[in-house]
């Protein structure tokens, strides 16, 4: 029997009902048993965070810096171990898992520095003899609800700025990936966080997440996940008059123009659409391709897909790991059927695969003859499924790219400075890539989208302060 990894509430590891964490690459492999918090546990975590807030929000900058820096150092030193744990429970390849662990370390390192750069303004008043101070203060208790697809990076880029700016945290990770969350919280606890500043409540969204949403003692909620759940977070937050930040879905376009470098376009498309098993909100699931390069592009992408290895995430040489679980696999397969029924042509893949170990393996699926009004072009699939939409020219490509209820990321492959410049200015997305995959962003710059993809201030970098602080204006006569 493996030990149960318990929830952390007010600095104590708390026992409770547990559930196995299953490896999607090998369903016979149990990563570990992880506790599931009850409503009472979650309420206790919120109370602990509320009690810890006054002292932590007034803690010294060097204390915060030291804790965040210690966490960064340990994550980086253990990146291979943490990356393996991540890949084992989520299914992304080991290379991707280790890379994500390293990124988590970079995030904590950045905000360790930010803790020493906290600043305000002193301004003259319009009234002689009066001065004005503009400062930022912590918001309070922050509830965090994070997704399963980036189980180290996304919690890190929420927790690090929250702690940097003096907030206390109630952290609910996705039920599918408790292992990475537990390891991260354990590192921060041992780095010296006072009791109650960071509380971990693993478990079901219907219990833990709902308790966080319902609590009047949660001052802000940051959420990354589905659009439907995001709306519920917004509704509950408005009812409680609290701050909220939502990062939700995407249906990201990658435009490929006739003058594009074919090799660059193919690598951008395959990486953006299919790596990490397509389970990224920034994945380029719509490939918008002009007529002159369309056939060559489709042929080259198909050949590239034929050479990709779909297998156990931990196995050397694997390019694409399994889908995260049975429900996500069923959703992917449902949309592949929908695409066929809508009249798109499945040019490659889409079959469930058998490997040496039992897992949720799916061959990457590439549709052609798709139109932008098909469900496979409108709705987020969140799997290794992409559609090629043929267009006449740049103007039509831009129109199709922007014709979506989402607006997270968009890309263009072109050697034309004119078109690249125009696309950056006119794309209705929060992030724009030129001759790069739509997925893949730096840790020190803002992350977020427009329309149905995001709501609230941006995440990451110095822009994170907009969410994790509130502005105070003080006058002295």
Automatic annotation (TrEMBL):
Broad enzyme group: oxidoreductase
Pfam assignment, any one: Aldedh
Domain of life: Bacteria
Domain Aldehyde dehydrogenase: 13-473
Classification via InterPro entries: Ald_DH/histidinol_DH (IPR016161), Ald_DH_C (IPR016163), Ald_DH_CS_CYS (IPR016160), Ald_DH_CS_GLU (IPR029510), Ald_DH_N (IPR016162), Aldehyde_DH_dom (IPR015590)
Bilayer-spanning residue ranges: none
EC number, as in UniProt: 1.2.1.3
Classification via CDD domains: ALDH_KGSADH-YcbD (cd07097)
GO terms for MF: aldehyde dehydrogenase (NAD+) activity
Positions annotated as active site in the UniProt record: 247
Sorted UniProt keywords: Oxidation, Oxidoreductase
Family indicated by similarity: Belongs to the aldehyde dehydrogenase family.
Protein's UniProt name: Aldehyde dehydrogenase (NAD+)
């Amino acid at each position: 029997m493996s030990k149960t990894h318990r929830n952390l509430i007010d600095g104590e590891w708390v026992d409770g009902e547990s559930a196995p964490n299953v490896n999607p690459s090998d369903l016979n492999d149990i990563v570990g048993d992880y506790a599931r918090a009850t409503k009472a546990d979650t309420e206790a975590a919120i109370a602990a965070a509320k009690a810890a807030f006054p002292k932590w929000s007034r803690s010294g900058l060097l204390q915060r810096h030291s804790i965040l820096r210690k966490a960064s150092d340990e994550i980086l030193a253990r990146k291979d171990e943490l990356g393996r744990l991540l890949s084992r429970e989520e299914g992304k390849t080991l290379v991707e898992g280790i890379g994500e662990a390293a990124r988590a370390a970079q995030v904590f390192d950045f905000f360790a520095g930010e803790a020493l750069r906290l600043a305000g303004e002193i301004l003259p008043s319009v009234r002689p003899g009066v001065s004005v101070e503009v400062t930022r203060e912590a918001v309070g208790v922050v509830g965090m609800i994070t997704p399963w697809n980036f189980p180290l990076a996304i919690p890190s880029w929420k927790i690090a700025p929250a702690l940097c700016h003096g907030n206390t945290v109630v952290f609910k990770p996705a039920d599918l990936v408790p292992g990475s969350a537990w390891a991260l919280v354990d590192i921060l606890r041992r780095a010296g966080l006072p009791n109650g500043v960071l509380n971990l409540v693993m478990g079901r969204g219907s219990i833990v997440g709902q308790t966080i949403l319902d609590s009047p003692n949660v001052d802000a909620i940051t959420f990354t996940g589905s659009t439907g759940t995001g709306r519920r977070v917004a509704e509950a937050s408005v009812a409680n008059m609290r701050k909220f930040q939502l990062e939700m879905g995407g249906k990201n376009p990658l435009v490929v123009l006739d003058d594009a470098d074919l090799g660059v376009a193919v690598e951008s498309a395959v990486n953006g659409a299919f790596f990490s098993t397509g389970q990224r909100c920034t994945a380029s699931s719509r490939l918008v391709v002009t007529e002159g390069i369309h056939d060559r592009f489709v042929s080259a992408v198909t050949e590239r897909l034929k050479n990709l290895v779909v297998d156990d995430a931990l196995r050397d040489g694997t390019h694409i790991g399994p889908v995260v679980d049975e429900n996500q696999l069923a959703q992917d397969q449902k949309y592949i059927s929908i695409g066929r029924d809508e009249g798109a042509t499945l040019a490659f893949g889409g079959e469930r695969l058998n490997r040496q170990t039992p897992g949720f393996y799916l061959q990457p699926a590439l549709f052609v003859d798709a139109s932008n009004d098909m469900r496979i072009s409108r709705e987020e699939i969140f799997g290794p499924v992409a559609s090629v939409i043929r267009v006449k020219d740049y103007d039509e490509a831009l129109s199709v790219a922007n014709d979506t209820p989402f607006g997270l990321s968009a890309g263009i492959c072109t050697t034309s400075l004119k078109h690249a410049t125009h696309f950056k200015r006119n794309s209705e997305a929060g992030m724009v890539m030129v001759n790069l995959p739509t997925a893949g962003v730096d840790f020190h710059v803002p992350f977020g989208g427009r329309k149905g993809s995001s709501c609230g201030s941006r995440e990451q970098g110095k822009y994170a302060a907009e969410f994790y602080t509130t502005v105070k204006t003080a006058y002295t006569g």
